[in-house]
Write a structure and sequence with these properties.
The complex is a heterodimer of chains A (204) and B (171). Chain A has helices at 3-8, 14-26, 28-46, 52-64, 66-70, 72-106, and strands spanning 113-117, 130-133, 140-144, 152-157, 162-167, 172-176, 181-188, 194-203. With 204 residues, chain A is of the alpha/beta class. Chain A folds into 2 domains: 3-70, no CATH class; 113-203, Immunoglobulin-like (Sandwich), CATH 2.60.40. A 5-stranded mixed sheet of chain A has the order 2-8-7-4-5, with no helix packed on it. Chain A has a 3-stranded mixed sheet with strand order 1-3-6, with no helix packed on it. In chain A, a hairpin with a 5-residue loop joins β7 (181-188) and β8. In chain A, α2 packs across α3. In chain B, α4 (90-103) packs across α7. Chain B has 2 domains: 6-67; 90-168. Chain B starts with 5 loop residues before the first helix and ends with a helix. Chain B is mainly alpha-helical and 171 residues long. Chain B has helices spanning 6-23, 29-45, 53-67, 90-103, 106-115, 120-134, 138-160, 164-168. The chains are: A alpha/beta (204), B mainly alpha (171).
């Protein structure tokens, strides 16, 4: 809490209070800062935002200052007027948010799928591992494994477990966007026989 | 007593005294301020030497508090109580405020709306953003807004009193 606020609320000791008073009578700008703090307290008082202790202290100050009591209607009007502005703004923002959400809701999903063709059999850990560079804005991958017998695929991170799995359509898998790292994809036929592994690295 | 800009200096002294007597919880800060200024004017007219009028007035104000000075009781004539000041109708104050906000320069109006809107953290962030935008520190912003508010308040007062000329003098 600022020293000025504590002064107005009667919370300074005598030495501190005299120091504030000396500045009050010597510095024009300090007087304005004190008056600005008075207005802050006045606004918080009419808004019911003072703590019980502050309210009691302010009321004892206010009791000596009838000129401040006369200014309370203005403080109330200012608060009411600006709250109305805020309420209007909040309603407008809420309506705008609903309109935007509705617009997106009725739009067909926009996807930016990147086509990738992988070659089977690349050795794991090889420096020559295939690299898939994800372009900005890409939301998913369409991976062509080049194996017409394959009907299922599964994907594992080299240093982790299974990431995803699914069925191939026309030899192509729709794979969600992958974070950078090393992966192994395995394709299998209708009987569940594993046909080939594909090792690749994803970079962005 | 106060040399150049005497009216402005007198008004400033009175505002200082109101704060001082309020902080002392002295009953009737306005009357105590007037009593202090009367005493100061008398002593200065007698030719007393002072370093600054402001510190001299502060010394007198301290004496007023020490003495426990109280305003003389109001004598009621014919047993009639003095009429209490009329309370402005809230809607009238709002209407006047709207008119006075319209008379502010667009920049000042925008500052008022941003400075006095919101509560708690929202208010602090809005004020910090406004100060940064204006290239001034928090205290300078408070002083600037205090002055704008003073004009706005004077305009509303004049409007409520039906004095359109004063209400129009905003900038």
């Amino acid at each position: 809490m600022s020293e000025i606020r504590r002064y107005l609320l009667g919370q300074l000791d005598e030495r501190e209070r005299e120091a504030v008073e000396a500045r009050l009578f010597a510095e024009a700008e300090f007087l304005e800062l004190v008056e600005a703090e008075e207005e802050e307290l006045l606004d918080q008082y009419v808004a019911g935002r003072l703590t019980a202790e502050e309210r009691k202290a302010w009321e004892s100050y206010r009791a000596a200052r009838r000129d401040l009591v006369r200014r309370e209607p203005f403080a109330r009007a200012l608060r009411k007027r600006l709250r109305r502005g805020v309420e209007w703004w909040r309603w407008a923002a809420a309506v705008a948010a609903l309109l935007v959400a509705g617009w997106f809701w009725f739009q067909p999903a926009r996807e930016n799928v990147m086509a990738v063709a992988l070659t089977a059999g690349t050795l794991r850990g090889s420096e020559a591992a295939q690299v898939v560079r994800i372009a900005p804005g890409v939301t998913g991958l369409a991976v062509d494994f080049g194996n017409r017998e394959a009907v299922r695929w599964q994907l594992r991170a080299v240093d982790g477990g299974q990431v995803a799995a699914g069925e191939l359509r026309g030899g192509v898998a729709r794979v969600p966007l992958l974070p950078p790292g090393d992966y192994v994809a395995t394709v299998s036929d209708a009987r569940g026989e594993e046909l080939a592994d594909y090792v690749f690295r994803v970079e962005q | 007593m106060l040399g150049e800009n005497a009216g402005e200096r007198y008004e400033q002294l009175r505002r200082r005294l109101l704060v001082y007597f309020g902080a002392q919880r002295h009953p009737g800060a306005e009357e105590a301020a007037d009593e202090t200024l009367d005493r100061a004017a008398r002593r200065l007219a007698e030719g007393v030497a002072v370093t600054t009028v402001e510190s001299f007035v502060l010394g007198i104000a301290r004496n007023v508090v020490r003495e426990g000075w109280k305003k003389p009781k109001v004598v009621e004539l014919d047993g009639r109580r003095l009429a209490a000041p009329e309370r402005a109708e809230p809607q009238a104050a709002l209407d006047c405020l709207e008119r006075c906000l319209d008379r502010l320069a667009p920049a000042s109006r925008s500052w008022v709306e941003r400075f006095y809107t919101g509560e708690g953290g929202e208010k602090i962030r809005a004020r910090a953003a406004l100060a940064a935008e204006l290239g001034i520190d928090a205290n300078a912003l408070r002083v600037r807004m205090h002055r704008v508010r003073g004009k706005l308040e004077a305009c509303v007062r004049a409007c409520l009193a039906g004095n359109e000329t004063d209400a129009g003098a905003m900038e």
